Amino acid sequence: MKLEDLTPKQRLKAEKWLAIIRECINSDLSNEEWCEQNNVSIKSYYYYLAKLRKMAIEQIPYKKRNNVLPLVPESNDIVEIQAPQSTPVCIPSSVMTICQGNTKIEINSNCPEWMIRELLNKYVR
To answer: Is pLDDT above 80 for 25?
Structure first.
């Protein structure tokens, strides 16, 4: 969902959670400690954190290139990719490229480690 698609009530709720998340991030406490001290459900915190991050990512345009998977699909459909087994090759550069058949996945060097692990667990076996 895009920010401009929100109703006024949803926008108000998003702004409220954005303020909560910023306050938590700017504290010296762990997320769990901050949420406990501020009577915020940790499950709700992570739910809205993920939801707001997704909305932020959807605002970023991307270029289409042949056989390159975009970080954010054009629709909300979940697409399962069946890739043949192969061994990824890592060449030192600022972008890691994994090719399987006609599919090419590019991972930028500043991509978080957890996201790389998730991609590798999901698509490279």
So the answer is: yes
